[in-house]
C-alpha cells in the first residue's frame, strides 16, 4: 500500500481506509492517476447486462454518493471519489464493494468474452 499512496479525505480513518483500499486493489480495482479515486471496468456478455448496471444508481442515491460511469456496448467503467471532503472516503470503498456484489449478480465475463456487434444481413 505504501507505493500507491492514496489521498484520503480529511477526517477519514487512514489505517482502516488503507486496509479497505488494499483489499479493493486485490479485487482488480485501480487507484486513479491522481490517487484520489478508485476505478474498475466490468465486462459483460451483452449490452442488456451493461444496462442493468443502472441498478447501481439506486444505491448511489440512497447513499447520496454518485460515481462517474462510462457505459459501452460490452463494458462499464466506474470511478469513485469523494468531492467534499476531497479524496478517498468510506463512501467510495463501500460503493466499490457494492458494485462488485452487483456485478457478480449480473454476471461478468473476461474482456474477450463480450458479444461483438455483427453487421446485419441485407437482402439483395
Automatic annotation (TrEMBL):
Enzyme class, first EC level, given as a word: lyase
Keyword terms of this UniProt record: Lyase
EC identifiers of the protein: 4.2.1.96
InterPro entries to which the protein is assigned, alphabetical: PCD_sf, Pterin_deHydtase
Catalysed reaction equations from the record: (4aS,6R)-4a-hydroxy-L-erythro-5,6,7,8-tetrahydrobiopterin = (6R)-L-erythro-6,7-dihydrobiopterin + H2O
Any GO molecular function: 4-alpha-hydroxytetrahydrobiopterin dehydratase activity
Sections of the chain in a coiled coil: none
Annotated Pfam families: Pterin_4a
A biological-process GO annotation: tetrahydrobiopterin biosynthetic process
Positions of transmembrane segments: none
The family this protein is said to belong to: Belongs to the pterin-4-alpha-carbinolamine dehydratase family.
Protein's UniProt name: 4a-hydroxytetrahydrobiopterin dehydratase
